[in-house]
Design a protein that fits this description.
Order of helices and strands: EHHEHEHEHEHEHHHHEEHHEHHEEH
Radius of gyration: 42 Å
Number of helices: 15
CATH class of the largest domain: Alpha Beta
Strand order of the largest sheet: 3-2-1-4-5-6
Strand content: 5-15%
Helix content: 25-40%
Number of strands: 11
Structural class: alpha/beta
Number of domains: 3
CATH topology of the largest domain: Rossmann fold
Largest sheet: 6 strands, parallel
């Protein structure tokens, strides 16, 4: 991370707004996102893209936070990716023309921004992605420098909670993960710092962990700050701390006992989910609500818990399974998350052989002819050899012509004067 970050914020409002409504049952609050980004650097530019004629309520909060609203005019064909293209072009233009801007924040969960994130990183820019863990592509989360979870921001106790826009049930607070699940990442980061010969401090340890895993957040483990997260590690007996609060030095505890049970990985939950989808395949043909699918999973496995696999909520597991083509998730502002069977359950049909039109006769392949073997086909006779004629010399040619003339005269005389019988 650079010492001072000048951040340009680009908000894909249509995407983030429907994602927050369908998964968190509340309106998207841009001030919460901006406050989280201010903790990481100075915000020097703020843009939001949407069809603002349909977002009258959102325009007031955008104006109150000095966010420049870019109007997206949809075309008659729908223009689904119009905001994505405009946002990407403006971000790249700023990267080329504003050298002082060295960090970009993409507020969206759309996987279409992966090429933009990679291109900005190629130009040496720090890239933040802010979105929901339940609807932001896991590939997008893992390829930025730091992913900021919107769920973790609204779960902070000091933030005022806004009422949801509808009368649906309020969101359940996410379950904190076991602190032991963070130890593989902590140990890996400490080993990296040890090989560099650097004494691990709080800020250096966290930045190294983010380099290894951009999705890490201490809030997922129930800690309000990274220092509180490290103190939890010490209380669990995994690390040793030295120094005062705020200037902790962290080292691995050689006598620390490993977790009693091996930590499950996110991919370990896929076979369980696959079996449930296969068992309810008929009900899934028209899609179902995420809550209904979760109840089917609990019926098949009463001890199932998303937190055991590293997910705070069941919706995060569905988001991960969507990137693995196991399911297809569509957010709906009124119903919530709708889940459909993914591409894995619909393999492509085998290619059919090309068929000729009915009026075209089929040609039989010629049968091989083996010499000495009987065959229903007669062997074709070889063509006759042309005869060679000897060209006569000039004298011979004249003599031959004279003899032919005499022969013709004799034949004529014989025919004209038949011999009379003797008396």
């Amino acid at each position: 991370m650079q010492d001072k970050l000048n951040i340009a914020v680009f908000v894909d409002y249509d995407n983030i707004e429907i994602g927050v409504k369908s998964t968190l049952q509340r309106d998207f609050d841009v001030s919460i996102a901006l406050d989280a980004l201010k903790e990481r650097g100075d915000i020097v530019a703020k843009f939001a893209y949407a069809n603002w004629a349909r977002q009258e309520g959102a325009t007031r909060q955008m104006a109150a936070n000095a966010v420049q609203m870019v109007q997206r005019i949809p075309s008659p064909r729908g223009d689904k990716n119009g905001a994505d293209i405009n946002l990407a072009l403006d971000a790249l233009e700023m990267a080329f023309t504003h050298d002082h801007v060295n960090a970009f924040a993409i507020v969206s969960g759309d996987s279409d921004f992966i090429p933009l994130v990679n291109k900005l990183k190629e130009y040496g820019k720090t890239v933040f992605v802010l979105g929901g863990k339940a609807f932001t592509s896991t590939i997008l989360q893992q390829n930025c420098h730091e992913f900021i979870s919107y769920e973790s921001l609204i779960d902070e106790p000091h933030r005022p909670q806004r009422q949801p826009s509808s009368q649906r049930q309020p969101r359940r607070r996410a379950t904190p993960l076991d602190i032991a699940q963070a130890m593989p990442l902590v140990e890996r980061a400490l080993q990296v710092l040890e090989r560099r010969g650097v004494q691990p401090q709080l800020g250096l340890l966290k930045s190294t962990m983010l380099q290894l895993d951009a999705t890490f957040s201490e809030k997922a483990y129930g800690a309000g700050s990274f220092s509180e997260f490290v103190e939890k590690l010490q209380q669990a007996g995994y690390v040793n701390l030295s120094g005062s609060e705020g200037r902790y030095f962290i080292e691995r505890k050689p006598t620390a006992e490993p977790p009693k049970a091996p930590a499950l990985k996110p991919e370990d939950a896929l076979p369980l989910l696959r079996d449930v989808l296969e068992a309810h395949r008929l009900e899934m043909e028209g899609g179902c609500l995420a809550d209904q699918l979760e109840s089917w999973v609990l019926e098949a496995n009463p001890e199932f818990s998303p937190a055991s696999y590293g997910f705070q909520e069941f919706a995060e597991l569905l988001n991960y399974a969507q990137d693995k083509l196991l399911v297809r998730v569509e957010p709906d502002e009124e119903k919530g998350l709708l889940v459909y069977l993914g591409a894995e359950f619909y393999p492509p049909a085998p290619a059919e052989p090309e068929s000729l039109p009915e009026d075209v006769p089929l040609e039989e392949e010629p049968q091989p002819v083996v010499e000495g073997q009987p065959t229903p086909f007669a062997e074709p006779e070889p063509p006759p050899k042309p005869r060679r004629t000897r060209r006569a010399k000039t004298g011979e040619k004249a003599s031959s012509t004279t003899r032919q003339t005499r022969t013709r005269r004799t034949r004529r005389t014989t025919t004209a004067s038949p011999r009379l019988p003797m008396q």
